[in-house]
Amino acid sequence: QILSQKLWQRCSIDRLDASTANLSPRNFKVSYIDARKPVILHGLGVSTATSRRFERSQLIQELGHKKLTFMMSADGKLGGTRMPRQHGSIKEVIEETMSKPCEPAREPYIFHHFEEHDASEAGTLKLEDLSYHLPPMIQSLWAQVYGEEWQLQASHNLAIGRLGSGLGFHSHGDAWSESLVGYKKWMLCDLTHQSCSGESWNHLLDSQGLSAMLENQSALQECFVGPGELVYVPENWLHAVVNYGETV
């Protein structure tokens, strides 16, 4: 309903099986981080049980009472720091905000930034509440690439989306995004490429404009990413996502 099946299936981003590829931290740093090249990793050893804990019913059952302080994208844009933060429990967010009818192209996409709220407040969702641990290979990689203090430098986010929601093109520092539930379309473009600059990249993620871009923009890299896969987006690469069903 959002894009043609052909566009969902295309993938022009490197996809590596971390369980079999020669992915030493040094090789990865040279091939992707130093080269500023995006990549998708799978085979990271994330268990089915871990993924199931992030599905709708389990989130509500185990963490439904926890409070979120979040921003919401309802038109493909987050709006930066000027967008007011909203508050609510995970149960409220999932059962009300994420389930209520809305206008076309205004499906909500929730972003909870763990470092942007008072974690000492009683009942607030903390990172440790998720009982989630980075795959060992990624922990080792980050320690060697970003230094042993990467935990203090990183910003952690929890994103919850539904069919048709998404986030328009934007850029920032290195980003690592792991899919635990659901599927999403990733689109990336290197800002150093001449065709990746200009106001045309700020449009909303409507299906007509997005389909035209995917058909005609040769500089755009794209792929369909699912549970257990992790996307590395280099610093200053434009990137956008569209969710294909409920996602975490």
Would you kindly provide a written description of the structure presented here, covering whatever features stand out?
The model has no long low-confidence stretch (mean pLDDT 79). The chain has helices at residues 5-9, 25-33, 48-52, 56-63, 90-97, 136-146, 150-153, 207-216; strands spanning 14-17, 39-42, 67-73, 86-89, 109-113, 157-161, 166-170, 175-178, 183-190, 221-225, 230-233, 237-244. 24% of the residues lie in helices and 25% in strands. The radius of gyration is 18 Å and the shape is globular. The chain is an alpha+beta fold and 248 residues long. Helix 2 crosses helix 6 (136-146). The longest helix is centred in the middle third of the chain and has 11 residues, at 136-146. Strand 1 (14-17), helix 2 (25-33) and strand 2 form a beta-alpha-beta unit. The protein has 8 helices and 12 strands. The strands form 3 sheets. It has a 4-stranded mixed beta sheet with strand order 1-2-11-8, with no helix packed on it. Strands 4-3-5-6 form a 4-stranded antiparallel beta sheet.
Task: List its traits.
8 helices, 4-stranded antiparallel sheet, 248 residues, alpha+beta, 4-stranded mixed sheet
Task: Write a brief structural summary.
It is built from 8 helices and 12 strands.
Following the backbone from N to C, one meets helices and strands in this order, namely HEHEHHEEHEHHEEEEHEEE
Characterize the biggest β-sheet. 4 strands, mixed
**Alpha-carbon distance between the two ends:** 20 Å
Shape: globular
* Average pLDDT figure: 79
Let me know the number of strands. Answer: 12
